[in-house]
Design goal:
Distance between the termini: 51 Å
Radius of gyration: 18 Å
Low-confidence stretches: none
Number of helices: 5
Helix content: 55-70%
Pfam families: TctB
Domain DUF1468: 9-138
Structural class: mainly alpha
Keywords: Membrane, Transmembrane, Transmembrane helix
InterPro entries: DUF1468
Number of strands: 0
Oligomer: single chain
Transmembrane segments: 7-26, 38-56, 68-86, 98-129
C-alpha cells in the first residue's frame, strides 16, 4: 500500500471521527444561523472527499521527509497548539494575528509580509464571521474595541 493510500485511509478514519463528534454538537438555543454542527460536518465531508481521492488514485511512494520539513511540521504543530490554548483568553483577532504571522514566517515570508498577512487574515475573517455570518467569536482582550 502506497503512503498516499495510507494517508487516504487515515483521512477517512479522521473524517468519520469528526463527523461522529460533530453530529453531537447541538446548541441549547439558536444563537447562530448555521448552528455549531455545520462547520465540523462540512470539514468532515471535505476531509472524506480528499481521503477517497487518495485511496482511489494511490500513487507512488513519497520521498523521505527531510529534517527541515520535520522541523517545519513540528513548529506548525506547536503554533497551532499554542493558538488553541490562548484563543479564548486573548480573543480571536489577536490570537489569529499572531498565529497567522508565525505560520507565514515558518513558510518563509518576510517580517512585513507576515505582519500584513496576519492583520488581513485576522481582521478580515473576524468581519466575515462576526458581521457576515453572525458567528460569535471571542473578543478577549479587545472586548471594548470590537
Amino acid at each position: 500500500m502506497s503512503s498516499n493510500r495510507t494517508l487516504g485511509a487515515v483521512a477517512l478514519l479522521m473524517a468519520g471521527i469528526l463527523a461522529v463528534f460533530g453530529w453531537g454538537l447541538v446548541a441549547p438555543f439558536a444563537y447562530e444561523p448555521v448552528g455549531p454542527r455545520a462547520f465540523p460536518m462540512l470539514t468532515a465531508a471535505l476531509i472524506a472527499f480528499c481521503g477517497v481521492m487518495l485511496v482511489i488514485r494511490g500513487g507512488t511512494d513519497a520521498d523521505a521527509v527531510s529534517g527541515r520539513t520535520m522541523t517545519g511540521i513540528l513548529m506548525l504543530s506547536v503554533t497551532l497548539l499554542i493558538y488553541a490554548v490562548v484563543f479564548e483568553r486573548l480573543g480571536y483577532v489577536p490570537s489569529t494575528f499572531v498565529m497567522a504571522g508565525v505560520v507565514a514566517l515558518i513558510f518563509g515570508a518576510s517580517l512585513i509580509q507576515a505582519i500584513v498577512s496576519g492583520a488581513v487574515l485576522s481582521v478580515g475573517s473576524y468581519l466575515l464571521f462576526d458581521h457576515g455570518l453572525d458567528v460569535v467569536l471571542p473578543t478577549g482582550i479587545m472586548g471594548g474595541l470590537i
